[in-house]
Please model this.
Amino acid sequence: MKYSYVIHTPKENIAFDADIFGTNGDIFTKGDHTLNVSVFKKRGYKVFEISVFSNKEEEVYLSLCGEGEAKLYSFNGVCDKERIFRQSPHDYLNYQFKMEKSAIPMVAAIRGDNAEIFISDNPSFFDNATTQHIIPEKGKFYLASGDNGETTNCEETDEFFPIFHEIDGATPHTFRFIAFTANASTLKQVRREAYKAIEAVWGEGSTSLYRAVCFAGNYMHIRKNEKGTSEKWVVPGIQYANCQYTRDAFYQSMILGADMDEQCYRSLLKYEMLEAENPLIYLIWSYRLVRSGKPFDKASADIAFKEVIKCMDKHDDGGFYPNCRENGDFRNWFDICAYDFDDVDAYTQGLCICALECAKRLGYDIGDRKKRAMVRYRSLFNGHYIPMSQKKQFLALDISVGEVLYYLFFDAVFVPHEMFRKTYRKIFDGPSRTPHGIKIVSAPDGSYLPLEAYGLNGYVHPGFATLDTGRYANGGSYHVYEMLFHIAAYIHGVEDAEKNLIDRLMIDLDYDGATHEYMHTVKGNGVKANQGWNASIHAIWSEIIKKGKATDAFFKAADAKLESLE
Model:
């Protein structure tokens, strides 16, 4: 392949020949423009920092251009026709956006068994404007730090406006990317090598491939916060515009380090603490921040705590009754499922117990509320299993989220061992389990639920009409909730829990070398690769190892699988 650095202006493109795999840096000058190329190695990878200056005020962006005979891959796979991939629709309010998207800003040029791989730094450094223009008909690509506004080969697409960066003689624009070669010829192998490089250059440098998968995906989900409540925040995945989601970011920031964790936390607005389980998460997050040595936002935590009390006071039985929409939906993460207003679901009730203890440690007076909340949670047990909720006596995997978090922070559990073990065996040993993972919710006999079971008083969220059996909320297998379910089982001494944890991860990795929001439990396909909250599993298991309560067998199995992908 022949490579060049390109300065893009609104009027012209200015190219300079680049010896990518031989150069140690250079300075180029043409007309008013000076291009300064710095190259350094970090943990075995070559990192390029390209800065462009101009003698006048100007708008530019930069790209690496490659041209030659090779199969050209994006993170999505081989490109069979011209594409322009983006990481951002440039509007955090545009949830239903139409865009050719790629979760990681990268291009790979493959010849035979070898790949030359190029990965941009995360979009937040470039005004969320990274693009990858791949033209297989010409054997050509551009890995860029800006956006020319073009679209190609899209039947339906939003309009995109050009995004350039302002420069002058004193203020340059700088683009960073990694360039390396690897023995990789398939999508799974290319993804693995990309994850490794991102962890090595922008992560902790861990040799664990599994940690690389978890960190890299979330690092590339970091965006400039266009709402302005912080410098940066993290999006759940490439499918979610540029908007941070409270519960997702809570999990995602576990892998991004204390500074990014604090930025995500401080980006939350007060109204977000009133919705669904968010006030519970905010109190838990506040305590987690304090444990890491960072200060929490007392004024916002006051709002969250008052809302928790308000939700508990809707009924005098120790239950937590989340705020939701008028149809009973959007009361917790399982957003399109509708609950009775006086129903108690195990997921939020468990979070409530953990949040109350966190609030107590933050200095709030919780009285006897935690004790009463624990009694209410245990009262859900029907003698055979802990159901999804008091009124929805279904088998559900999200029942133990609060339990796992409580154990992480306080080295204790609030569910009796026998109660949880019976629940685990009821779910795992029956038809709730499929070759593609356990159904997120199923009937008491383990079968798929009819759609009306997800509704209330004849109302079923319209979104269910688009879901075939086994997809998404209609019986799909959610990676993060099943993994947390197995971790809870391990904490409760279930002998096969660690093996089941390993087996569930393998379902995702065998599919395409990534983890997903969910697996379709009928068709077996993974949906939304690099779903950010999955990374919390690595962080949580690492903490359990640090407590001396687990070995690294799970991590070793994950690394071995990733190393063997073909």
Notes: Residues 277 and 332 are 6 Å apart (CA to CA).
